[in-house]
């Protein structure tokens, strides 16, 4: 059975609406968002969707994260606490601003930041906390906001994988922190190939981010550069596609939620246990423990399973052999173990990381090494796809 994926038309929602939006922009003759209208319209629509005073469009999700670090305004050598289970795009902007990433360990049940681990790392140079809503599951953002407020820190929410993720008590992921970031890269819920946005209710943070995204150029003041900035502008072509995609976003997330809940119920029916913890019986009388994801608020960029006994690599191989797009670990290694930390950062210099060594993160290392399994997820999955996955899990023989 074929599983649609986001690298092919059958796994995307791109169609006539995006073609028509591109046609309008191309025929307008204006492809640059400084003078065009599509990017500003996208900002208004995303701001309205999220209930945010400001939305700033930019060239990529990584660019959006860089803008969020600029908004936090770390001095060289200041620290930003973040997670080791994320794309490097979360960490690269910290280094680009000459700040130091400090990796906190994660909740072993979902891979999101553990607030207690974050609290233990806050020190005199800490400037911000950067949380990632991993795979679309809501992080414990209320606790992290309380920490940020108690210590005078900025809270940044990386929502690249978390479009329309719902937070306990209401609101979307990205609206509980000082700045939220969104991604429109090829593999995300909606796409324009590459693109990003930041959202915030803070006028001053929005001003800093808009300036940095446009070379520090205050357009109202003429050809005058107020501060350091890069060209992170989104093009009108990107914005046109993103605007058409945005209209389809609620349906995309609803479809992913429907089939994800179907799979949770199917897997729960295979074994014994309560809540999210199940035990699958094996023919030899043994059992395989599986921790199911919690569906509350989840946007299902990927479908994760945690196997506390370390069976994730074997089960991933078993599912892969059945044609199911599954893999163990998500990353080759958590970012606190990346080769980068032994290498130069700028030229031959290791600044700002002289003498720096990331601390161990045992829970993150265990997830990536042996307990985390992820299944690619897609809005075009059907109940039949769910049945194929559940049947394959039911037939898992366990470790040889």
TrEMBL record:
Pfam families: DegT_DnrJ_EryC1 (PF01041). The keyword Transferase applies. The active site is at 188 (proton acceptor). The keyword Cell division does not apply. The modification N6-(pyridoxal phosphate)lysine is found at residue 188. Keywords: Aminotransferase, Pyridoxal phosphate, Transferase. Its cofactor is pyridoxal 5'-phosphate. GO terms for molecular function: pyridoxal phosphate binding; transaminase activity. GO terms for biological process: polysaccharide biosynthetic process. Belongs to the DegT/DnrJ/EryC1 family. This is DegT/DnrJ/EryC1/StrS family aminotransferase. It comes from Nonomuraea turkmeniaca. The lineage of its organism: Bacteria, Bacillati, Actinomycetota, Actinomycetes, Streptosporangiales.
